[in-house]
Write a structure and sequence with these properties.
This protein has 140 residues and is mostly helical. Helices cover 65% and strands 0% of the residues. Helix 2 packs across helix 5 (71-90), helix 3 runs antiparallel to helix 5 (71-90) and helix 6 crosses helix 7.
């Protein structure tokens, strides 16, 4: 993941290997950009829609204001599989991962759908996504 690690470093992750938030962002982007093992943007959006959260995720895709989501709703939509994968990658608990994702996912998915539409392509370039995401991630 050299390019992605470099991008995270440029975005303020001085020691991203020890930064759970940076590791979670990297894992989330990896999940959203990979169609394998149930990943990919379309599959993730479907998981939220199947959990009854379609109006919330539709706001993230649309060009309007993003509706908030709670950590409980994240846990409901992602279930044990994706949430466990992201928690393991970041070193955070399931609860902390869900809380961080409730802050992260609306902006991340919004950046992935800049024209209010889910991209047609099956795989998204993680390095390009990190560049698009940089304004949201900032140097916090």
């Amino acid at each position: 993941m050299g390019l992605l690690d470099t991008a995270l470093g440029m975005l303020g992750g001085n020691n991203q290997a020890n930064d759970p938030k940076a590791m979670l962002i990297q894992a989330a982007i990896g999940l959203l950009s990979n169609q394998q093992q149930g990943g990919g943007l379309q599959n993730l959006l479907s998981a939220f829609q199947n959990a009854g959260l379609g109006s919330i995720v539709s706001s993230w895709v649309s060009t309007g204001q993003n509706l908030p989501i709670s950590a409980d709703q994240i846990q409901q939509a992602l279930g044990g599989g994706h949430l466990s994968q992201l928690a393991s990658a970041s070193g955070l608990s399931h609860e902390d991962t869900a809380q961080q994702l409730s802050d992260l996912l609306p902006g991340l998915i919004d950046k992935m759908t800049p024209n209010g539409q889910v991209p047609d392509h099956t795989n998204i370039d993680p390095a390009a996504l990190m560049q698009q995401f940089s304004s949201l991630f900032g140097k916090s």
